Prior knowledge:
Blueprint: E1 7-8, H1 29-42, E2 47-49, E3 59-63, E4 78-89, E5 93-98, E6 108-113, E7 115-121, E8 127-133, H2 134-147, H3 158-163, H4 165-172, E9 182-183
Parallel strand pairs: 1-9
Antiparallel strand pairs: 2-3, 3-4, 4-7, 5-6, 7-8
Amino acid sequence: MAKTLPIYLYGHPVLRNMSEDITPDYPNLSELIADMWQTMYESDGIGLAAPQIGRNIRLQVIDATPLAKEYPECATLKLVMINAHMRSLSEETCSEAEGCLSLPGINERVVRPESIVVDYMNEQFEPQHLELSGYAARVVQHEYDHLDGKLFVDHISAMRKRLIKKKLQHIADGRVRVGYPVMRNPIH
């Protein structure tokens, strides 16, 4: 039975590490994927990357189908991505609000490429090639950033970052209440 794992919050060092590719013999991979789905759904998320549960491996789960009414391109975006690597990013960009389970209570507009091409492996380690645009591309880019030790607030202006500095510090210090299990920065 799948279990809900704690989500690592902003300030925890694991969120800033580069993640590594995995092989089909990664220990308990199917259970880990089931736990990630469970954790994401229990936390009301639409995506979850392995660093957010304390593992620096190139694994992410995404289910953006609840956004289909507002963003039709998300209607079929439900997948497991293993060893994802971006192949191309469009020069055309768009700005939309983003939030993150690792940064509860913070929503900021982020400029990202409008379309992407990404290669990855599915759960059976079969090669996949995906071309996405609009909000579907944004969701994948957001989760993909976690694999490279980046957070969506890294994409906002220095002024916006200064304006939310206190909120970020509260999260890093563990002074935030959420409705899901979390792992705080071990230094605090």
